[in-house]
Description:
Elements: E1 2-4, H1 9-28, H2 43-61, E2 63-68, E3 71-76, E4 79-84, E5 90-95, E6 106-112, E7 116-120, H3 125-135, E8 140-142
Parallel strand pairs: 5-8
Antiparallel strand pairs: 1-2, 2-3, 3-4, 5-6, 6-7
Amino acid sequence: xxxxxxxxxxxxxxxxxxxxxxxxxxxxxxxxxxxxxxxxxxxxxxxxxxxxxxxxxxxxxxxxxxxxxxxxxxxxxxxxxxxxxxxxxxxxxxxxxxxxxxxxxxxxxxxxxxxxxxxxxxxxxxxxxxxxxxxxxxxxxxxxxxx
Length: 147
């Protein structure tokens, strides 16, 4: 079962703001002043700008979580992670700007094997927790309120 990432205003403004900033530099930017190794008008500048936009769009449209064959598969653009559902010990709701494969400040903190944690933000948290709980009955759910 696939769960897309929840997308909030903070990440929407950040990602689309950077994309628009790059586009506006190429559309309306003047000539670079001073010494620069790579400018936005240089062919390498076009490559860097284009790759930046592609990676940001890839993250925006391909961040999600799939539960399949006893695994939780986490996808965020080019980044991939696999967690065995049987290794998950606890799921806790948090609100954090911490970097994670999530497009929302409201996240689920997944505690798994060897005291590791992973942060995700499925759009439908309740359905996600129910699916994970159905595959791992020993799972502890922390119903703490988000601050």
